[in-house]
Amino acid sequence: MSEARTLRVEGLAAEAGTSVDTIRYYQRLRLLDPPRRVGRHAEYTGAHLARLAEIRRLADDGFTLAQIRSLDDGPSHTLDRLADEAGTRSLTRAQVAERAGVPEGLV
Question: Residue 9: which residues within 8 A CB-CB, separation 6 or more?
Answer without folding.
Answer: 20, 23, 24, 35, 42, 44
